[in-house]
Amino acid sequence: MNNNNFSRRKFLTGAAAVGAAGAMGVGTLSSCAGGSGTSGAAGIFDWEPRELNLPPLLQTAPEGKALKAGVIGCGGRGSGAAINFLDAGPGLSITALGDVFQDRIDSLREKLKNEKGVEVADENCFVGFDAFEKVIDSGVDVVILATPPKFRPEQFEAAVKARKHVFMEKPVAVDTVGIRQVIAAAKMAESQGLKVVTGTQRRHEHSYINLMKEINNNAIGHIVSANVYWNGGKLWHRDNNPDWSEMEWMIRDWVNWCWLSGDHIVEQHVHNIDVANWFMGTHPVKAVGFGSRQRRVTGDQYDNFSVDYIYEDGRHVHSMCRQINSCANGVYEIFHGTKAIATTTGHKPQIVDPAGNQLFVAEGSETSPYVQEHIDLVTCIRQDIPWNEAEQTAISNMVAIMGRVSAYTGKEVTFEEMMNSDMKLGPDTYIMGDIGYIENAKVPVPGTLERS
Asked: 357 Cβ partners below 8 Å, 6+ apart?
């Protein structure tokens, strides 16, 4: 491993990945200021009250046109999203399913039948890497994208071109080529009046929104720094099965492979990074980070990251995430203001003074945020309310990728150079067979052995 050093150039070009290639013809962006809420440095630090673009937050979606949804990716999150969609209100149905594995489709069909009395016809169940195209073409109104993140940009673009409303899970991509593809498709969706929700459920959670409102009313003063954490135990892994091909094993074990998940700073910690962007009102412009692999038993990823994100006006956000059992855990955010501190420790959004005395507690809701985001999507469709979260989530996603690259290489990485890089992870073509990926996969090691 000591000889396996990774340069920043390799990661910015994707040369470390099998089948690395250039950008996919969606255009090079020098910045994302137009869609991120970025403004001049002085305006950010002064923290003038912002116009908050908030979801409707109804308790149930209103009646209206019957909406049929198709699920692409029928694993745990796809199954959960399917049930969440059906729970969002009246006149909703699941009519098509797609996955690369038949057993995943069978499992979701059984779940829908047993829990919701919903039966999906055989002719609307599609297996294979092209299953997403068949689901999109099956006559659905809404597409639910819950495949491993690598596949999401292509599937999102296809859904938008077919003029479908979309719920897609975060993260929306694993590399910069995918990020640009999502941003381009997001702009296309906006021009067509399509509604898009992206699985960043904290933006639909009553308590987080009420905390954001209070901060916007100057309850903590100017935000001067923040800390965001997702420190938890190991997720899961799948041991290889001799009956599986190389591709099948990697997809079944997808949370452990960088080309499929983006590493856990992208796949999971993007939630907290997105909250930081939301509350700070902009995104960081550079990152310096580190991480390592201590306990992970499959794949090519790290299991811990620590990243210092720096904003244009000089403010810092410290980001920390870990997936190792039997360690100190916590999933929350802290925003340090000139007057008080906003914190979500224990998933209880509140404001405290410097001594820890409680000044404000944000009210929540009995509605699960996982259901609320579908309520909001359906409401916006039926009431024709403009709603498109794809670009803002792509920007948060890009921030997470920036932190990953900095940790992998040990170098300072800027948002602009990331957005202009041609990083593309993974194989160029997908076949359910042996593709020679694993033999070339390496766990990144930053820096060099030489003395400075």
From this structure: none
Q: What per-residue confidence (pLDDT) applies to 20?
A: 33
CA torsion, ordered 209, 181, 414, 263, to nearest 10 deg: 70
Quick one: pLDDT at residue 450? 76
Omega before 49 cis (within 30°)? no
Question: Which residues of the chain register pLDDT less than 70?
Answer: 1-11, 13-47, 452
Are 153 and 168 spatial neighbours (Cβ–Cβ below 8 Å)?
Answer: no
Report whether 122 contacts 144 (CB < 8 A).
no
Rounded distance between C-alpha atoms, residue 312 and residue 32, angstroms: 13
Cα 79 from Cα 94, distance rounded (Å): 11
pTM, to two decimals = 0.91
CA distance 143 to 53: 24
pLDDT at 22: 30
Q: What is the pLDDT of residue 12?
A: 72
